[in-house]
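Consider the tokenized backbone below.
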């Protein structure tokens, strides 16, 4: 059974997920795969977390946000935050 390394940003670590070849095939076509319902302490309800793949950072977990039910790679998001912060710092100088 293929095992893939997935970045779990809630746990801040990589986890290993096993998918059968058939599950992997379906995941590649759909682009996402339901992982688990999860609830953070400050959330009012549990959210469905999905497995997805970033072309730059590999597999990750996220829950759909916004009207388009978009999944975002947390590492890409962090890079954007970092970029915006650097821009702000430069503008101040
Ligand atoms: Zn990414």
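A designed sequence for it:
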């Amino acid at each position: 059974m293929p095992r893939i390394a997935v970045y779990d940003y809630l746990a801040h670590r990589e986890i290993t997920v096993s998918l059968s070849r058939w599950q992997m095939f379906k995941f590649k076509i759909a682009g996402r795969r339901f992982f688990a319902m999860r609830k953070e302490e400050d959330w009012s309800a549990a959210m469905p977390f999905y497995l997805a793949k970033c072309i730059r950072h590999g597999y990750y977990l996220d829950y759909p946000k916004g009207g388009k039910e978009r999944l975002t790679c947390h590492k890409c998001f962090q890079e954007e935050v970092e970029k915006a912060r650097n821009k702000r710092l430069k503008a101040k100088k």
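Residues 54, 56-57, 73, 75-76 surround zinc ion (CB under 6 Å).
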